[in-house]
Amino acid sequence: MKIAITGSLGNVAGPLVKQLLAEGHQLTVVSSNNERKKDIEALGAAAAIGSITDASFLAKAFSGSDAVFAMTPPSLGLESIVANNIGAGKAIVAAVKESGVKRVVLLSSIGAELDGGTGPIAALHAIENAYNDLDNVNVTFLRAGYFYINFNNSIPMIKHSGMLGSNLAADTLIPLVHPRDIASAAARELVRTSGQSDVRYIVSDVKTPVEITNAFANAIGKPGLPWITFSDTDNEQGMLQAGVPAEIAALYTEMGRGLREGRIQADFLNGNHSVDGKIKLEDFAKEFASGF
């Protein structure tokens, strides 16, 4: 198959590209970074270098493809983040329409069905709705859990404060996912040409903050490491003091509140959806420890 991949060679797209190439598919990898061109071509894929917000460029990159893996970068600037991501998502939608591609796998998120109170996930709600306006395109919304690798940002907290914490309650059930499990799921979906548009979840494990903290504590040799639940205000202020831009701090605090209240993960937890990912918390804890 001819498949176009957005996301360059990032945490999800990188392993996805390698898997699809190993399976014999012909790939075009979209990247905004010209320095990635050599890396992409060295793997055996074609590189399309340009802006993820340029629908005309994307349409040319997608032209002739049997399927597209669509994702927007985790951050498009430090301000108007949700609006910028929606803009990029809609540019991909426009390119799909113009290029005539009939199969798309969109990397989405748990909570994307909600129309507010989800922080950065709000962009994916709008993007999913934009795909619903396409005719004769088979779209899978691949809704991923909370990325394990986001916890790598907590390493300084553990080192300097001797704790792990956020505005999540200690007993909050969190669907978690490893990027490599997302890549495997996306690879399966991209080659599935039959069927109708649907929603599929990719989750590697479901754990509470206390269980996550204990797994990390055991892996890094710090038994008894506590999980501390912050108020929303303290969580946001702590992020600001750590140098996180104000808009990002507000968005991630809102997402934490949505998880704490159980809204963001409700559709997955209540819908009898399976946990298909192979990389469990204990597996990721070893990765976490290697970077500690």
Automatic annotation (TrEMBL):
Protein name: NAD(P)H-binding protein
Domain NAD(P)-binding span(s) in chain numbering: 7-117
Record InterPro entries: Ergot_Alk_Oxidoreductase, NAD(P)-bd_dom, NAD(P)-bd_dom_sf
Pfam families named in the record: NAD_binding_10
Domain of life: Bacteria
